[in-house]
Amino acid sequence: MQYDIRQGSLKELEIKVLDMGMGQERPAWFTHATGTSYDVVFGSAMEKLYRATSLRPEQNILKEFIPYSGLLNIDEDIDIEKVWNSIAEKLELDVSALRARVLPLSALYSISDHSRSLLVALSDGVLPSNSGGGYNLRVLLRRSLDFINKYSWDIDLSQVCEWHASYLKPQYPELIEHLSEVDEILAVEKRKYRDTRKKAKRIITKLKDKEVTPEGLINLYDSQGISPEMLLSHGLKIELPQDFFLRLAERHEKNRARKKEKKFREFVFEGIPKTEILYYSDYLLLEFKAKVLKIIDNKYVILDKTAFYPTSGGQASDRGYLNNSRVTDVFKQGGMVIHRLKDIDFSEGDTVAGKIDASRRIQLTQHHTATHIINGAARQILGEHIWQAGAEKTTEKARLDITHYKSLTQEEVDAIEDRANEIIAHAIPVENYIRKRNVAEAQYGFRLYQGGAVPGMDIRVVKIDDIDVEACGGTHLKNTSKARLISIISSTKIQDGVVRLEFAAGKAAFRYIKKRDRLLSESSEVLSVNSEQLPESVRRFFREWKEQRKEIQRLKQEIAELRKADLKHQFRKINNAEYVVAEIDADIEESIKTARGLVAGEKAVFLLGIDDKISVVGARGEKLGLNMAEIVIEVARLLGGGGGGKPEFAQGAGKRKDRIKEALKLAESMLREKLKN
Fold first, then answer.
1. Between β-strands 486-495 and 305-306, what pairing exists: parallel, antiparallel or unpaired?
2. Do residues 422 and 517 both lie within one domain?
3. In terms of residue numbers, what domain contains 332?
């Protein structure tokens, strides 16, 4: 490091610093002269883990092994087994004995390291999930649980996190404050892990006697959460790549790289200054005058200053007029705000009058400030792990995606809505000001960036008391009371670790409530009950519907059995095989069940299930060598559809009901020909 940039300009440092990435742990290790870095870095937590597992490092062996341990580098293309044998030979130990001494310790050190990472990350609001950094966190958690199961250790990760927090309290006292949240999140993750282990048993029965490739192992982990350790613990023989978790991480890095996209046309500007923003200080600044700096393709306009808000931060752009020309879109590129217009009636260099659609601006501003209010309310109700994961504000409604480890209950949604409306009722000032980045970060921390990274040395801070603070460029109310009312429309878990709250504020909230009341009134009329009796009436109808559904399923089963019994009498013989070709009244699911229930040994079944469309199903027993997929494809094509599958089972669909007889004849002809041969 050569320069101090905290004041927004380069100032040469008196003492130049080389940041070599050593951190504070290596000096602690070599100054304490312990056998491993873990003993000093994890201190009392490591000592408690030794006692919990009755493991003790054999210092004489570790002293000789550690200098060679770097050779077991999974990042390099090496023969790991050969390296293990080479190290064992140098230490004059049997390789199995060396592994037995080293690997359990390695697992214990991994648990200690992973649990501390979990403690810090969860305390900072990161949640385990199936994407992004949360994915890596879940890998650490499940890897720790795999080790605990593998060695049958009596270790509770929540307790290990508590040990770490106590040991680190002098340096990081805030970790203790988050232990109850950490414990709750880990409990949810452990339940998911147990469910996955149960699911692994069912999947393993399908995988027995099949080769599972390294790519297949990665797919199993990615799609089902089933780790190689789970497969091994259930008796499945697999070849586990030494770099399994490295390959897993590489796949997710590639997936993230694919997700970049462009939304607007890119322009090339030369000699045009940044646009001065007028809406920062006053969202009610709806009229202004500005100079036209550039017109592109007679529809894109750049001004020296503007009060028009460009699409960004999930907030839709303003609409309005420049002189008599209608503004249809506004977006930002670099420091320039670009206005898209229809029928431009001015030239470069002219001074134009800007007028913004007031009702649209006010509604969007209410929704943007309401997003900050709900974000703060959710954090107060659910915990400090709540971060904004995405947002969108339109004139009809808005949405806020928050990080949370499970779906919200109706009680939690109601509590968030109540707290949000309390914040409105308290009429709290909404502050916004420009600060140097380093000053804002020192004052508020990285919660500033939960709405996304903000470029530049100067950032705009939007603050609502101690409820919410973010770096934000959107239009905002001056007081929470101006949001008038917030009504949460829905709560949905949109992905692992992320919950979406849809809501309306201001006039949009009143419109939503009015529409909801009208629907309730109409529903009450339909059911001939008053609104208070509506919930019980709906529950009663739902119970009756479920009972009727069960009865329909029972009748369907009876029909299926009768159909199967009838079809058994329709089998014809050819050589040593039997076959049936028939038309039945059934959908695709029932047709498949019927066909599979009839095939065995040297039997072949071909069915056309007649419903809204025609289902084409072909199946044969294991002792027949014919390809049913070929027949299904040809018949489905004749019926104006398509199909496919495997030789033993195939399915398709068609729509030409006028060709059913012709299709049955074709199927029988092809089936007989194949069975003769």
1. unpaired
2. yes
3. 276-356
User: Tens digits of per-residue pLDDT, 569-583?
Assistant: 899 998 889 999 999
CA-to-CA distance for 236 and 228, rounded, in angstroms?
Answer: 9
| Token pair listed for 109 | 């050190």
Same domain, 493 and 541: no
Q: Are 628 and 596 within one domain? A: yes
**Is 184 within a domain?**
yes
| C-alpha 632, offset from chain centre | 39
CATH of the domain at 319: 2.40.30.130
Q: C-alpha 542: how far from its chain's center?
A: 32
Looking at 398-436, list the stretches that DSSP marks H as alpha helix, in order from N- to C-terminal side. 410-425
pLDDT tens, position by position, 26-77: 888 888 878 788 888 898 999 999 999 999 888 888 888 888 888 887 666 6
pLDDT at 244: 64
With helix as H, strand as E and coil as C, how does 472-506 read? CCCCCCCEHHHHCCEEEEEEEEEECCEEEEEEEEC
Residues 517 and 383 in one domain: yes
Q: Phi, psi at residue 340, to the nearest 5°?
A: -100, 125
Which CATH number is 462's domain given?
3.30.980.10
DSSP single-letter state for residue 585: S
Q: How far is it, in rounded angstroms, from Cα 577 to Cα 676?
A: 9
Same domain, 474 and 404: yes
- 445: its two tokens: 């921390």
- Under a CB-based contact definition with an 8 Å cutoff, are residues 639 and 663 in contact? yes
| Residues sharing a CB contact under 8 Å with residue 48, sequence separation 6 or more, in sequence order | 160, 163
Q: Is beta strand 320-322 parallel, antiparallel or unpaired with respect to 305-306?
A: unpaired
For residue 13, tell me if it sits in a domain.
no
Burial of 390 (0-12, 13-18, 19+ CB in 10 A): middle
Contact 413, 363 (CB under 8 A): no
Partner residues linked to 654 by β-bridges:
614
Q: How far is CA 202 from the centre of its chain?
A: 25
What is the structure's pLDDT at 308? 96
User: Of 649, 647, 651, 624, whose CA–CA distance to 639 is shortest?
Assistant: 651
Task: Clarify whether residues 51 and 186 are in a common domain.
Answer: yes
Compute the distance between CA of residue 295 and CA of residue 110 in angstroms, rounded to an integer.
61
End position of a domain, from candidates 356, 389, 420: 356
Burial of residue 230 (CB within 10 Å: 0-12, 13-18, 19+) is buried
More confident residue, 62 or 116: 116
Distance between CA 293 and CA 273 in Å, rounded? 9
**What whole-number distance in Å separates Cα of residue 675 and Cα of residue 578?**
9
- Calculate the dihedral angle through the C-alpha atoms of 135, 141, 147, 149, rounding to the nearest 10 degrees: -110
User: What secondary structure letter does DSSP report for 526?
Assistant: H
Q: Could you say which of 298, 331, 356 is where a domain stops?
A: 356
Q: Do 477 and 347 belong together in one domain?
A: no
Q: Is there a contact between 299 and 341 (Cβ–Cβ < 8 Å)?
A: yes
Give how many domains the chain has, as a whole number: 5
* CATH number of 654's domain: 3.10.310.40
> What confidence score (pLDDT) does residue 260 get?
44
Residues 455-500: tens digit of each pLDDT: 778 899 999 999 999 999 899 999 999 999 999 999 999 888 889 9
Per-residue pLDDT tens for 238-257?
666 666 666 666 665 555 54
Task: Answer whether residue 199 is part of any domain.
Answer: yes
Pair 188, 208 in one domain: yes
Calpha distance 50→58 (Å, rounded): 12
**7 in a domain, yes or no?**
no
- Dist. CA 89–CA 83, nearest whole Å: 10
Q: Which residues pair with 399 in a beta bridge?
A: 392, 502
